[in-house]
Automatic annotation (TrEMBL):
Keywords: Signal
Domain of life: Bacteria
Alphabetized InterPro entries for the sequence: MetalloPept_cat_dom_sf
Signal peptide: 1-31
Protein name listed in UniProt: Matrixin
Organism field: Actinokineospora diospyrosa
SUPFAM superfamilies for this protein: Metalloproteases ('zincins'), catalytic domain
C-alpha cells in the first residue's frame, strides 16, 4: 500500500525537522509583545519495508495511542488567508476546499475515534490574498507581517510543506504561515485510482501543518505511526486526514493549558 519509487534506506524516516523554538525575532519588542517563531517541516517518507510493517499495526492503535507532543503556543482565534498563486493545475479548483477541511478538522478536533468536538480555538477563513507565506525556498522563516497565509512555492528536498508560527509572550499565536511544495511532488485532493509514486494527499498534509499551528509537535514515526503528527508522510496515504487519539489528546491538553 505504501510503496515508494525511491530506494533510499529507512534511515530517512527521521529526516530533519527544523525547530527554532523560542528565538526572539524582534529585538525592539516589549516583553509582552515579544514574538517568537518556530518552524516545522513535514517531510516525505521514502521507506518501503519499514512503512509496510507500520501499516500492519496501524488500524489497531489509532484510537488507543494517546501520545502527543506539545509546543509552547496555542491558538485562540486565528484568521487565515489563502494565496492560490502557483497552485498545481490538477487541484486548482479543489485545493482551497481541502485546506479548509483540514483547518476545520483541527478547529473542531474532528477525529477517527468518535470523540466529541472541541470548541476552544477558532479559525476563520479571511479570503484570498496576494500576500505570500513568509517562508523561504530554503525553509527559513522570513518575518512576521501578522497575517496567516497558506500558499505555494519551492521547498528543500523531501519537504512537503513548512509552517512558521509566531506567538506572543503569553504563548498565543499571532500568525502562522504555511508554504506547500509545488515543484517536487504531485498533490491530489481525491485519491487517484491505482495511486503510485510520489503523490501526496493535500488534506492529510494540511491537517498536519495546522496541528503545528495549533501547538502540537511531532510524535515518533514508528511507535505512533497512526497519528497525524509523525514527522513524515507516505505517498498515497489518506488514512490520517482526521485526528487520531493522540492528536486529539494533544489539542485537548492545549485547551486546558
Ligand atoms: Zn511536522
Amino acid at each position: 500500500m505504501r510503496r515508494s519509487i525511491t530506494t533510499l534506506a529507512a534511515t530517512t524516516l527521521a529526516a530533519a525537522t527544523v525547530i527554532l523554538a523560542g528565538q526572539p525575532v524582534t529585538s525592539q519588542a516589549t516583553a509582552d509583545d515579544q514574538v517568537y517563531v518556530v518552524a516545522e517541516a513535514f517531510t516525505y517518507d521514502e521507506g518501503d519495508a519499514v512503512t509496510a510493517a507500520i501499516t500492519a499495526a496501524s488500524a489497531a492503535t489509532e484510537c488507543t495511542d494517546t501520545t502527543y507532543a506539545l509546543k509552547t503556543w496555542k491558538v485562540g482565534t486565528l484568521n487565515w488567508l489563502y494565496n492560490g498563486a502557483g497552485v498545481p493545475a490538477n487541484i486548482a479548483s479543489t485545493a482551497l476546499g481541502a485546506i479548509t477541511a483540514s483547518t476545520n478538522t483541527v478547529a473542531k478536533g474532528t477525529n477517527r475515534c468518535g470523540l466529541a468536538n472541541l470548541t476552544t480555538s477558532t479559525y476563520t477563513y479571511g479570503g484570498t490574498t496576494t500576500l505570500k507565506p513568509q517562508v523561504s525556498a530554503t525553509a527559513t522563516c522570513t518575518g512576521n507581517d501578522n497575517k496567516s497565509v497558506t500558499g505555494w512555492g519551492t521547498l528543500p528536498t523531501k519537504v512537503l510543506a513548512y509552517t512558521c508560527t509566531y506567538y506572543n509572550a503569553k504563548g498565543v499565536v499571532i500568525a502562522s504561515d504555511t508554504l506547500i511544495d509545488n515543484v517536487a511532488y504531485t498533490w491530489f485532493t481525491t485519491k487517484p485510482a491505482n495511486c503510485t509514486g510520489q503523490q501526496y494527499d493535500l488534506e492529510t498534509t494540511l491537517t498536519h501543518e495546522r496541528l503545528h499551528t495549533a501547538g502540537l509537535g511531532h510524535v515518533d514515526q514508528t511507535n505512533n505511526a497512526t497519528q497525524t503528527m509523525t514527522p513524515a508522510s507516505s505517498p498515497c496515504d489518506t488514512s490520517r486526514r482526521l485526528l487520531g487519539a493522540g492528536d486529539y489528546a494533544g489539542l485537548k491538553a492545549l485547551a486546558t493549558k
